Amino acid sequence: MKKALIIVDVQNDFCEGGALAVPEANSIIPYINLLMEENEYDQIVLTQDWHPADHKSFASNNGKNVGETISLNGVPQFMWPDHCVQGTFGAEFHKDLNRDKVTHIIQKGKNVEIDSYSGFQDNNHFMKTGLEDFLKYHDIQLVEIVGLALDYCVKFTAIDAFNAGFVTCLHFNGTKAVNVKPDSARNTIYDLAEKGITILA
After folding, report:
1. Percent share of the chain, pLDDT over 90
2. Which residue out of 15, 84, 153, 169 is catalytically annotated?
3. Helix 184-195 and helix 155-163: axis angle, to 10°?
């Protein structure tokens, strides 16, 4: 069975000191590096949040406060601080992430009108990123997922992988949650397990 590792959004803005820092984000990087070192993956894919500066998920572009929710093209949209703006340091992959074995990079969130948590498609399910086609072209059957953040981009990437027919595993030690709500991480793990996604602890 051919397998791929999908590393979700390990970018400066989600790590320590970033504009949208995930608590303890930096602690997962050695674990991810070890996975790549100790396992044989047929493909290793990075996803990268890659927003235009005028992206409508940014509170600053809507005259809103961070944490508010608006309706964006018919979908509830949480208002985030500006983050992962194309071409900025914040959008770059963290320097400690070993990229020697990476075979492909998927950029997402490029459309100003709609956010894209999943590495597979936007939140409206209008536009695919090409990730599913890439994996299927390379006969990948199993995907393992790590990265940031558990309760948003990792969660939706895992669900879309499972729905696309891949055997889907999440490395619990390779992800951290934003925890906008206190039980967000725990609820996400329960939710994913209930859907049929394997949690590797």
Report:
1. 96
2. 153
3. 10
